Amino acid sequence: MEKRQELYAGKAKSVYLTDDEDLVILSFRDDTSAFDGEKVEQLSRKGEVNNKFNAFIMEYLQQAGIPTHFEKLLNANEALVKNMEMMPVECVIRNVAAGSLCRRLGVEDGMELNPPLFEFFLKNDALHDPMINEYHIETFGWASAESVAKMKELTFKINDLLSKLFADAGMILVDYKLEFGLFKGEVVLGDEFSPDGCRLWDAETRKKLDKDRFRQGLGGVIEAYEEVAKRIGVPL
After folding, report:
1. Do 24 and 9 contact (CB within 8 A), yes or no?
2. 210 neighbors 229 (Cβ within 8 angstroms)
3. What is the rounded distance in angstroms from the CA atom of residue 108 to the CA atom of residue 98?
């Protein structure tokens, strides 16, 4: 597999073309950002930890019948993935109230949400990822009605699978975001699933084990990521 020019560089990952038009290389960097890029730091080992964490989760979901873009790990910081047409929306599931939900609605932090809340957000840093709904998505052509329905279906299935995975390891999956794309007409899970894009709390102590440690200046960010990985069996 020949690695070619950079196709895209995000806040924490880069995408490179290959000699196969159906496959690209996803490169996880040590860059860490919060608040739409206002707070940026380099955290040693972050790229490697997130790459291996994501590979474990994607393979776990694939074994349960969830279509993902993941093909294989290439090295410590890179993975081979399908070259998809990404849909510019984020699917968010909230099992426990935290973060922006509490600020927007004034609900108590840590409140269990039953049933879980599902929200769509537009993936647009310049607009601070505003919340949208199915009507926005269809009207502006960001995804078809069929794709929207499939994204919701897959997101709830993933929630059942991952909530149990983390609960069995003594953690609460508070909330998370997912991104989907189209690969040869099929809706497929893309981007990544790591502690960068979800909230995870220790079930007993409510200790934060995710990117909130960076956002809130709590320290021990990568150590927390590694603790989560160890608990669920990610080989680092």
Report:
1. no
2. no
3. 8
The 3-state DSSP class for residue 224 equals helix
As given in the structure block, the two tokens for residue 140 are 């502006």
pTM over 0.70: yes
Is a pLDDT exceeding 90 seen at residue 38?
no
Please, are residues 30 and 44 in contact by the beta-carbon 8 Å criterion? Answer: yes
User: In this structure, what is the dihedral angle of CA atoms 75, 79, 80, 82, given to the nearest 10 degrees?
Assistant: 180
What whole-number distance in Å separates Cα of residue 125 and Cα of residue 9? Answer: 14
Write out the two tokens for 154. 């897959």
Query: Which residues make Cβ contacts (< 8 Å) with residue 51, sequence separation at least 6?
Result: 26, 28, 73, 76, 77, 78, 79
Pairing of strands 198-202, 131-132: unpaired
How remote is the C-alpha of 39 from its chain's centroid?
19
Residue ranges of E strands in 123-222:
131-132, 171-183, 186-189, 198-202
- Using DSSP's 3-state secondary structure scheme, residue 193 falls into coil
Q: Are strands 70-73 and 39-42 parallel, antiparallel or unpaired?
A: unpaired
Tokens 């608990």 belong to: 231
DSSP class of residue 121 equals E
**Beta strand pairing call for 85-96 and 112-122:** antiparallel
- Rounded-to-integer distance, Cα 47 and Cα 120, Å: 27
- Compute the half-sphere exposure of residue 18: CA atoms within 13 Å on the CB side of its CA: 18
pLDDT in tens, 170-186: 999 999 999 999 999 99
